[in-house]
Design goal:
The protein is of the alpha+beta class. It is built from five helices and eight strands.
Amino acid sequence: MSHTALIPSHRKPRQSASKTALRAGVAGGVLSTIAVAGAAGPAQAEPVTQTIEMPTITAGLSTTVAASAEATQQVALDLETQANQDAAAATAAKAAKKAKAEAVRKAEAKKKAEAAAKAEAKAKAEAAERASRASRSTERTTLSASSGSSSSSGSSVSTASAPASSSASGSAASVVSFVQMQVGDAYVSGGTGPNSWDCSGLVQAAFRTVGVDLPRVSQSQSTAGTQVGLGNLQPGDILYWGGAGSAYHVGVYVGGGQFVGAQNSSTGVVQKSLDYDPPSGAVRVL
C-alpha cells in the first residue's frame, strides 16, 4: 500500500465539460458586451429588443387537447341525457301512482255500490217475504176458524175457501184447507214448516191439525190407512208415488181431480191436476 493512500486529496472535484462550457460561454458573452460598450464610447446606446419565441404546440398535444374537450362535451351530454331520463321516469312514476290511486278509488266505489244494491235487494226480498207470511198467517187464521165451525156443524167447506174440494167435510175439509194454504211455500228436504216443507212433512202436519199422528216418511205414510183405487178418490186421501211401503213421494188429494204436494226445490208446494204427475196409489186415513 502506498504511504499516501490514507491522506485525503485536496484537489477540487472535476466539473463536467458541459457545465464548464456553459460557464465559459456566459463569461465570454458578458465580456464581449462590456467591450462593445466601451468601444462605442459615450454614444447613446440603443435599446435592445429581444424576441422570445413561445414554444409551438405540437400536433400530438393539440390532438390530446381536442380529445379532452370532446370527452368533456360527451360527459356533459351524458349528464344532461341522464337528467332528462330521471325527470321522465319521475313524471311517469307520479302518473302511474295517481292512476293506481284512481283505479283503487273506483274499485272501492263500485264495491260499495254493489254491496248497497245487494243489501237493498235483500231488504226488499225480506220485506216481501214478511208481507207474504203475514198474509198467509191471516188467511190460515181465517180458515182455521172456518174449519172449526164447519167441523162442529158437519157442513161442507165453502167453495170460496177450497174451490177444488167442495165435497170435503169435517176433518177432511180441515186437511184440504191446510195443504192448500201452504201452496207457494218453499220445498226443503227435511222441512216440516211453517214456511218450508218436504212432501211427507207437509202431509204429516196437515193430518196433525185434525189429531191424526202419521209416520214421518213417505214409505210409512203410503201404508198408514186403507188402500183405495185412484178411480174412487175422496178429498183428504193420501196419494203416493212408487210402491205401497216403498213410496218416494206423497201428496193430498183435494178434490176436482187435483192434488197438493211439496214437489221439489224448483216448484215448491203446488196444487196441480192428477194428469200433471199421475200417482201410483192412494190410502184413506179419515
